[in-house]
Design a protein that fits this description.
The chain contains 5 helices and 13 strands. The strands form 3 sheets. A 5-stranded antiparallel sheet has the order 8-10-6-4-13, with no helix packed on it. Strands 5-12-11-7-9 form a 5-stranded mixed sheet, with no helix packed on it. It has a 3-stranded antiparallel sheet with strand order 1-3-2. It has 2 domains: about 5-90, Arc Repressor Mutant, subunit A (Orthogonal Bundle), CATH 1.10.10; about 100-220, Sandwich (Immunoglobulin-like). The protein is of the alpha+beta class. Helix 2 (about 20-25) packs across helix 5 (about 75-90).
Length: about 220
Amino acid sequence: MAAELSMDLQRLTTLQSALDIIRFLGTQPEYKADMDTICDGLGISETRFQRAIRRLVNLKYVQLVTQPIYSLTPQGERAVAELRAYDAAVRDNPVPEPPTRRAFVVLPRVVVAGKSTPLRVGFAPDGATTTRTDIIVRLDALYATLSADGDHMLRLGHESHVVDLELTPDWYDQIRVRMEVYQLSDDGEDVYECGGMYVDVDVVNEGEPGEMIAYGTDLTFV
């Protein structure tokens, strides 16, 4: 029989790094560590940590001892024991890796303040994909205006998918374009984080935009 987590812990699998934080705290003296130690130990950003730790505290797996030190609660300690048993079972009965898909953001190497320039967001083709998946592509820009920011709904199949936009930089030295991707469950009731990326681009006051550069990342689907 395949290893399976309890329903309570299964709900945390949709939040990146949440279960890994529980695992990590279970290896620390007195089951406690500060934010920097956790982030460095897991190789995650502060943003990802904050998203996960809020859920863990709300669900009473983790408690804030004193800023910025967190520790496991008794419920968290029980979760550690369950995760250790689960991880051991998975090692004995490995499961296939989840499917991934290459996503990209394409924009000029250098942009001009106040001057509209193309921005392309999309997914590379994948011949191994046999079904279609509903996803949400969330886009926003810092110190710039997108022609259509916010959420973009796509039905992702084996072929390439591209969203063409326009980007107008503000009068700053640098802008940031962010993309986050979420997968909808078949019944539409659940949303899973697939990953994302951000790109920082320098801004000049005059001239022409630089050559178009593609920045890519691998997304993980359920």
